[in-house]
Design goal:
single chain, about 450 residues
Amino acid sequence: MHTEELSFREKLGYGLGDTASNFFFQVFNLFLMYYYTDIFGLPPAAVGAMFLVTKIIDAVSDPVMGLIADRTNTRWGKYRPYILWGAIPYGLCGYLMFAGPEMSQTGKLIYAYVTYTAMMLAYTVVNVPYSALMGVISPSSIERTKVAGYRFICAFAAGWLIATFVGPLKNLLGGGDEATGFRLTMIIFAVLSVLLFWVTFATTKERVVPHITKSNVRLDIKILLSNGPWAVLFASAIVTLMNIAVRNGSLLYYFKYYVGDDGAPLFLIFDKTAVFLSLGLLAMIGGILLTRYLAVHFEKRILMIALTLLNAVTMAAFFYIPPDQYWLMVLVNCIGSFLIGPTPALVWSMYADCADYGEWKSGRRITALVFSTVQFAQKMGLAVGAGLLGIVLGAFGFVANEAQSETSMMGIRLMFSILPAALAVLGAAFIFFYRIDQNTIEEMEEALAVRHAATGEAVES
């Protein structure tokens, strides 16, 4: 089946949407736990419990948003309108999380619950349709994989900006007051996020437009649950994002308390933590650039398993690296980041393949429902991982802004190395059972092209 290639403008425009998302997503991964405990003054166990409790709302909101988006029909398509209108609430809620008002301990915890929940809802309204858009931007799996590559180059470019500049920016803008520094820094990223989402809306198009079928929520859910490849990716997403949340969330504690990074500049205005993060993310972007080549020459499933297991080895190595071997840490992290670089683009193109698979088997396309439930799995994994981090820090006797005991230091080291490595291995084990290969993809694309032509469904050019 021949499909017209998407333009550079559209692929980049779509990718910039994930730049907007990651201006906040990466801040949450790297700085939110630290902000809540060391700056806002909340106990780590209370923060961990909050991350877990608030997922009850996501358990409902994510699949509901998927169902709503799949049933939306406008002159702009099903999914793009939510990117347009959801951008401003997204930016506003993200800023409010770091507004840091003066309150009692109870008041601060309530404020954290309210603003964190509001942000997760705003994230759902924008990012479920944004993710689903990739499933209808082209009928070709190869084109969607290319789009996913652009998406994650842009995503990790945002991650690099966050990792490299949030620390120095908060110090510069706050003049030594971390709370003020975070607040002013997040205003900048909130405005940029809104603008970039609008660019995504303006530069993309929905091409796979199925004919309108009778709404049947129960049938859609039944089709989803019978989709074996989706179930595998759903389980893998939970443990993979637990891995990311545990490791990224513990990173600032690892460098502040184990490595002894006191914020002194190592290079220009950048301290040891910023240099470590910056170089690691640059290495990851290098890995992302290989995605297209690897996807053409190897099965996605095999790539996901091999790259994930190799990255697990590099994470486990950090348990054994002495605190004075900083540049060895940087080298090992760059190797692991390069290895894991292609996997986000690969796995998101696999989600789109799952949407095709469901339509191929059932005759109904539930793109947004597929993506919304996977997004819920990811948010659940992040919440469980972050919650686990807070609970373990509390259990090991962590005390913010104090010299750590041998026990609490062990907890920090385990959370940065052994535990995320074990979760990565478990995620790879789930991927082993994913059974959509290149032959299946070609068969699906041919069958769906014939079905769309026969039923009058549109695949726009």
